[in-house]
């Protein structure tokens, strides 16, 4: 656990100030910074309350999460395993700021970690800054590669092979961010990496999206933007509770596939897959 009532993080070039009366999740510690974010500033205020009562009407529900809208105000509610709400995240100023209410007596750090992630990726999309991908992102030779694919396709395995055999640095093994403010998209580590402990506060220009498919023989080919979009969209953490956020996310997805190399890698979990992709990149 890391103590402190007001801390500032720098994630993907964005400054995020969190005000809370309790400790923050330890995964945030590598991202603590006093440097001003070049892209923008975000603010999250954490409060403890006796009871969570979502306002407005229910928009959608999926597992432990539900989305609510009250006029122009949007909220994401996290419920415990008993179905009772334990946290409510409410955005303001087009998600430039948000309030996170946590029910008293609940593990506040766990709620801050889960709903803090939702705040970051919602703000990133709604403000047109970028996207969070379900991918393994790494830095190699001054450029970024993002391995994209369904769960079980070998994203972590391929990233690990590049780390072991090519000296690549894994920025995030599950949820890297991509920003598009500049001409070249940039790949960033974030504090949220699923069950993986690999998360680094680093950034690198994104050169390629590599869409993985398991196969008996290693091979790589160039994809067109039209081919890649249906592969990419399910791997973006979309803000389904926000109409403006969804519109911005779809626009940025189209921009992303027009600015980077798009590669399909049919592969085995072996060094040969690294050699196949490395050879293809050298020709691209």
* Helix-strand topology string: EEEEEEEEHEEEHEEEEEHHEH
Q: Provide the residue-averaged pLDDT.
A: 93
Largest sheet: 9 strands, mixed
The CATH architecture name of the largest domain reads Alpha-Beta Complex
Spatial extent as radius of gyration: 19 Å
Q: Kindly give the count of domains.
A: 2
Which oligomeric state applies?
single chain
| Helix fraction bin | 10-25%
* Straight-line N-to-C gap: 45 Å
Please mark out the parts with pLDDT under 50 across 5 or more consecutive residues, or reply none.
Answer: none
Strand content: 35-45%
Q: Structural class, judged by helices and strands?
A: alpha+beta
CATH class division of the largest domain: Alpha Beta
Shape: globular
CATH fold group of the largest domain: Phosphoenolpyruvate Carboxykinase, domain 3
Count of alpha and pi helical runs = 5
Key words describing this protein structure:
9-stranded mixed beta sheet, globular, alpha+beta, 284 residues
Short structural summary:
The chain is α+β, with helices and mostly antiparallel strands and 284 residues long.
Outline the structure in words.
By secondary structure, the chain is an alpha+beta fold. It folds into two domains: 6-127, no CATH class; 131-283, Alpha-Beta Complex (Phosphoenolpyruvate Carboxykinase, domain 3), CATH 3.90.228.20. It contains five helices and 17 strands. It has helices at residues 108-126, 155-166, 225-232, 243-257, 271-283, and strands at residues 6-11, 14-19, 40-49, 57-62, 65-70, 73-79, 85-92, 97-103, 130-132, 135-140, 143-148, 169-172, 177-179, 186-188, 203-214, 219-222, 261-267. Strands 9, 10, 11, 12, 13, 14, 15, 16 and 17 form a nine-stranded mixed β-sheet that branches. The longest helix is centred in the middle third of the chain and has 19 residues, at 108-126. The model has no long low-confidence stretch (mean pLDDT 93).
């Amino acid at each position: 656990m890391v103590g402190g009532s007001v801390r500032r993080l720098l994630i993907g070039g964005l400054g995020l100030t969190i005000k809370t009366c309790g400790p923050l999740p330890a995964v945030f510690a590598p991202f603590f910074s006093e440097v001003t974010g070049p892209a923008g500033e975000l603010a999250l205020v954490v409060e403890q309350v006796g009871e969570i009562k979502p306002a407005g009407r229910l928009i959608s529900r999926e597992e432990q999460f539900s989305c609510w809208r009250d006029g122009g105000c949007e909220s994401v509610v996290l419920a415990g395993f008993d179905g009772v709400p334990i946290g409510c995240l409410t955005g303001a100023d087009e998600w430039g700021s948000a309030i996170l209410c946590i029910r008293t007596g609940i593990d506040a750090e766990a709620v801050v970690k889960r709903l803090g992630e939702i705040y970051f990726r919602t703000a990133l999309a709604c403000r047109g800054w970028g996207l969070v991908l379900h991918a393994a992102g790494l830095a190699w030779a001054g450029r970024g590669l993002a391995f994209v694919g369904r769960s079980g396709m070998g994203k972590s395995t391929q990233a690990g092979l590049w780390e072991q055999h090519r000296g690549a640095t894994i920025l995030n093994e599950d949820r890297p961010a991509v920003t598009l403010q500049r001409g070249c998209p940039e790949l960033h580590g974030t504090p949220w990496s699923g069950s993986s402990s690999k998360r680094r506060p680093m950034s690198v220009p994104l050169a390629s999206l590599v869409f993985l498919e398991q196969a008996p023989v290693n091979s790589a080919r160039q994809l067109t933007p039209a081919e890649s979009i249906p592969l990419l969209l399910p791997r973006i953490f979309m803000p389904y509770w926000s109409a403006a956020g969804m519109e911005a996310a779809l626009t940025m997805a189209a921009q992303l596939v027009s600015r980077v190399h798009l590669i399909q890698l049919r592969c085995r979990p072996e060094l040969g897959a690294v050699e196949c992709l490395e050879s293809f990149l050298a020709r691209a």
